[in-house]
């Protein structure tokens, strides 16, 4: 897992479905679990959703806290 992949979880939005427009890091656990059961989309989107599923499933969501804080500071400072 690379830092760039974690950062992308906070920037890439879900392009379709019930949670369209929500960043991957903010998708609810039950939705991530659904993808794990039914199959992740192909390509980059699927890799990011699978990564977020692993983070969520293993209780590692705190990994994203420093990145979230850094993004808020960057957005405010712009």
Low-confidence segments? none
Helical content class = 55-70%
Strand content: under 5%
Radius of gyration, in Å, reads 12 Å
Structural class call reads: mainly alpha
Number of helices: 4
| Molecular shape | globular
How many structural domains does the protein architecture include? 1
Strand count = 0
**Overall pLDDT metric:** 91
Largest sheet: none
Distance between the termini: 28 Å
- The H-and-E topology, N to C, reads as HHHH
Oligomeric nature of the chains = single chain
Task: Give a description of the structure.
This protein has 78 residues and is mainly α. It has one domain. Helix content is 58%, strand content 0%. It contains four helices and no strands. Helix 2 (29-38) packs across helix 3. It is globular and about 35 Å long.
Features:
mainly alpha; 58% helix
In short:
This protein is an all-alpha fold. It has helices at residues 3-9, 29-38, 43-57, 65-77.
Task: Note the topology.
Blueprint: H1 3-9, H2 29-38, H3 43-57, H4 65-77
